[in-house]
Amino acid sequence: MKRTSTVHQSTSREAKIGQRMIEVKLYFWTNKIANRKGQVIPKHAWGSGMVRVESNETHGIHPRKPIPFHSPLELPAVIEKVLIQNGIVLHPTRRMKKYNLT
After folding, report:
1. Which residues of 27-62 are buried (b: 16+ CB within 10 A; e: fewer)?
2. Are 71 and 22 in contact (CB under 8 A)?
3. Residues 37, 30: contact at Cβ < 8 Å?
C-alpha cells in the first residue's frame, strides 16, 4: 500500500528505525484497587487515566502536558486533543476517503 500526500508544508528528513512513528501513550490508573497500599491487582485498572504523546526528536515532538480521560468512551476525543496540542497533522488513509474529508 503506497501512501502519498498532496500537501507537504515541511521538508522531509532522514529517520532512524524506532524514530519513524509517532507514539501516543495511554496510562490507566491502578491505585486503590488492591486492599493494601502500594500493591496492584494484575491486569486490573480504573476506566480513567491520562493520554500523552511520546517525545520524538526526528519529528520535533517535545510532549506537552498529558490530558486526562474519565471513561474509555472519551479516548477518541482526548487523543485528537493531544495530537492537536502537539501540532501533529494526520493525513487521511484510503479507508477514510469514504468520509469525504477535505
Report:
1. eeebeeeeeeeeeeeeeeeeeebbbbbeebeebebe
2. no
3. no
C-alpha R_g of the chain? 18
How far apart, in Å, do the first and last CA atoms of the chain sit? 21
Provide the residue-wise pLDDT of the chain in tens; the chain has 102 residues: 344 444 455 677 777 776 788 899 999 999 999 999 999 999 999 999 999 999 888 888 898 999 999 999 999 999 999 999 999 998 888 888 777 756
Beta bridge partners of 68: 50
Going by C-alpha positions, the residue among 1, 19, 5 that lies closest to residue 91 is 5
Residue pair 66/50 in contact by the 8 Å Cβ criterion: yes
Global confidence as pTM? 0.77
pLDDT of residue 102: 61
Total residues belonging to the chain: 102
Alpha-helical (H) ranges within the chain are: 75-85
